[in-house]
Structures are given as C-alpha cells and as structure tokens.
Specification:
The complex is a heterodimer of chains A (about 450) and B (about 100). Chain A is α/β, with parallel strands linked by helices. Helices cover about 60% and strands about 5% of the residues of chain A. Chain A folds into two domains: about 170 residues, no CATH class; about 170 residues, 3-Layer(aba) Sandwich (Rossmann fold). In chain A, strands 3-2-1-4-5-6 form a six-stranded parallel β-sheet. In chain A, helix 1 packs parallel to helix 9, helix 5 runs antiparallel to helix 6 and helix 5 runs antiparallel to helix 8. Chain B is an all-alpha fold. Chain B has a domain of about 60 residues. In chain B, about 80% of the residues lie in helices and about 0% in strands. The longest helix of chain B is centred in the last third of the chain and has 31 residues. The chains are: A alpha/beta (about 450), B mainly alpha (about 100). Chains A and B meet through helix 1, helix 2, helix 3, helix 4 and helix 8 of A and helix 1, helix 2, helix 3 and helix 4 of B.
Amino acid sequence: MKLYFVQFAYLAAAASFIMALRWLSHPTTARRGVRIGEFGMALAVVATLLHKDIISYEWIFIAFFLGSAIGIPLAVWMPMTHVPQRTALSHAFGALAASLVGTAEYYLHTGELSAFTMGALGIEVILGYLTFTGSLMAFGKLQELLPGRPIVFKGQNFFNLSVLALAVGLTIYLIFNPGQTELFPIIVVLSLIFGVLLIIPIGGADMPTVIALLNSYAGLSAAAMGFVLDNKLLIVAGALDGASGFMLSVIMCKAMNRSFTNVLFGGFGQVQAVAGEVEQRTVRSASPAEAASLLETASSVFIVPGYGMAVAQAQHKVRELYDALTKRGVDVRFAIHPVAGRMPGHMNVLLAEADIPYDRLSEMDDINPEFPQADVALIIGANDVTNPAARYDKNSPIHGMPILDTDKARTVMVIKRGMASGFAGVENELFYMDKTMMLFGDAKAFTADLVKELAANHD
Amino acid sequence: MSSNLADGLFVFVLAGFVGFEVIRRISPLLHTPLMSLTNAISAISLVGSIVIAGSEKSQLSTILGTIAVTASMANVVGGFVITDRMIKMFKRREGAKR
C-alpha cells in the first residue's frame, strides 16, 4: 500500500513539474507554475521520507536545515545583477548532489552492480563531477575572482579531450572488470579536472551558452541517477532540465552564429593582436544637454541595454530616464539581444527589477523591422551586438551574428566609457557613422545626467 | 535489469520530448526564471540523497548523503524562492491592454 502511495506521489510530482514549466510560458501564469512546482517537490519529499530503507532521520533534518540556511540567503538577498553567478553556483550544488549520490551508491554496491547500472552510474558521476568544477569555474569568472578572458595554451583541445576520453575509457573498462575498484577514484579526479579545463578557455561573453550547457549537464546527471536508482521521477525531472538547458544553449549559439564546438573549443574573445590599421577616425561626441534635447523631441526611442548596463548597475537610472521620456509622450521601447548579459534573459530580469513594464521589452526579431521608424537608438553598455560589420565583413570574428539594427534608426546614441573594443575584440563601425553621437561616461552617471537635463528643460 | 533499462529509456525520451515542446513556448523574456525553475526541479535528486543519508548503510554513504541532501536542499529552497522573486518583478504598464 505504502509502495503504491510512493509511486503515485512521484507520478503526481512529475506531472506537477511539467505543468510548472507549462505555466511558466507567460508572466501572468508564471507564479502559478512556481506554486505547483513547489507542491510537486513537497509531495515527492514527503513520499521519500516514508522509504523503508530510512532508519535515521537525524542527518536528513540537519541537512535540510543546513541546505535551507545556504539556499534562502542566496535567493532572498542576491542582487539581480548577480543572478548569473547564483545560477552557476546552483548548477554546482545540483551536480555535486548527483555525483555524491553516485559515489555512495558505487561504494555501497561494489561488485554487485550490473553492467547497465554501472554504465548509468559512470555517466552520472562523470557528468556530475565535471559540471561541479565547471560551474565553480564559471562562478569564479562571473564573480571576477578569476580572469574573464579565455586562457588558451597550445594543444589545449587535444589535452582536454584526452582527459575526458581517459575518464570514459576507464569507466568502460570498469564496467567489464568490476573488480578494479581502484579505478573509480581516478575517474572522479579526471572528471573534476576536465570540468576546470573545459571552462578555462571560455570568455565572459560566451557565458550565456556555457551556463545553459552546464544546466543541461546537471539535468542529465540527475536523469542518469534516476537510471541508477530506478526512479522514474528523477528521470523525468532530469530530462526536463536537460532539455531546457540544451534548448537554451542552442538558442544562444544561434544568436551568435556560432557552433557548439566553436563556443567550447574556439577560445573566442582572446586579446587579438590588431595588425596595423591604426587609422585615426573621428567620432562625434556630445554632452548630456545636447543628447537630452534630442531625446526630448523624439517621438520614439529604442533603448538597447547590454552587459555594461548591468556592470554599472544603471538599470534604475534607466528606469528614471524611461519615466521622464514617457511623461513627455515619447514612445520608449527596449530592444534586447538574446545574448545580452551573462545568461539567457539576464537583461529582462534587470529591467523588470527596475519596474519597467515587460510589454516594453522586445526581442530582437520583433523589434528589428521597426528600427527605421525609431528617432533615436540609445545604446547603453552594448557593443558587439550592434556592430553592422557582422552583416557584411567576412573577416570579422562576429560575421553572420544576428545584430540589432540600430544603425537604421535616425540618430544613434552610444553611452560608453571610452573607445575600447567590445568582447569580440573588434572595432564597431557604428561609432563612426555620421548619425552617431558618442556619449562618453559611466552608464549610470551619464543616464543620471540625462535625467537631470530633462528635468531642467521641463521647468 | 534490461526491462529497467527499457522502461527508463522510454520515460527519458518521452519526458525529453515533452520538455522540448513545453519549453519552446516560453518567451525569452522569462529565460532566466526558466533556468532557476528547472534548477529547482532537477534538485529532485534530493529524493535519492535522502535515502542514502538516512539508510545508515555505511559511514561513508551517510556523510556523502548528508552533503548531497544539503546541496539539493539549497537548490530546492533557493531555486523556488528566487524564481518567484523574479517573476513577481515582471509587471505590465498600468492600464495596458492584455
């Protein structure tokens, strides 16, 4: 009877998780999605606590308490600009849990594991440990504890793949020679090392893809755990997470016109030695007053936010600018590139945090055809995603990347600290166009100046 | 054991398809909350960890299980709370048409 209860509870939990994702499709139903997800989780945990193998609850409850003590502060006080870091950290936690369970299972059943279970356990452990260290590395890069630029060395790809191949090879050997238990720790160590090696050559702007990929690995590792424990709920949840992460990383790759292999092994965004061509070109810079008077007379303004806005914590000032312009009847919209920021959807969350209504946030494909009607395209902290060279310059590293058509707006304004190139290490043609006004300064400070000018003009 | 494999793969493949279909409809607007929600959901590895931590089969498994429960619990609680926090921030303009 109890067994049936547990199975039904798991089935209901699996269904709740699918509904949770279903309701997440729209902001109006999304909170309902979170509720049902929580319900499913609670149901599954209660059912599991009734498991016949559990003798002692002491450690379980201590761990519940510790886990909540770690998880709640990370969720409640984490500023929205730091969500990518938190996400990387939570992938590390999830992967750690899966790999530790795999390790414990291995040592509990050494010698009695079937080839199939051992294979699944191998996948769980390899994916789990590599995701654990990989996510910690990603966290380090996002938190700027580690250098954000990719670190490359000669023969890196060959070396990295050899480490992975060795781990996989040893696992296969272990499946057929279960007696060689001393191989297991070696597999663990190799996987941990591979996780580090995998992230070393990846630069900051590729983080959206990598975070999504790590998300997928963490999910697949949980699904593999489901195979080991013969638990369908784990398989379903792991498959959902794996599918979601995979899909997001495909979307991110497409938005950069790059392949998976290129993101993972390309060492993109290294400091490139720019050969010759230091031709001095002039740009037109403008003061806050000039920019403000132009913005004020515009009838539509498209704001293009990028990672620079997040770094400068400028989103709340941008909101004030939005309010000031909207009050004057200017139609203000936000044009968001899929890879803007450090994780999928990063800009949307920041702008929503600053109370900008979400119907003002537009995706690239929706808003691009409307750029020719925009009076001003105001770029705040974005660079490569606006570079027109992506359309025609075959030699550019960003050639073929879909961009926001900011150059089609009547006037382009760019808030930027200086003329430094963006992540891809290329010059942005846009800055030298006749209709472009460069607004030099810190994103937050300059936006604040614009707001001040607008207020002064109003009186 | 081979029927376990077949059953497992059956469930895995179908759940994967459902996942793709459901997630395809989620607008890029909500991709960050999507990631934190799937993260919370995949912390269902909590159920595996609980059994390991509580079954007292060996000292090693109790230690590993307890760490695993801690890590998954952090994701469960943290994942749902931050997802909710993010979603609450998404508001429409006052008086905007639906």
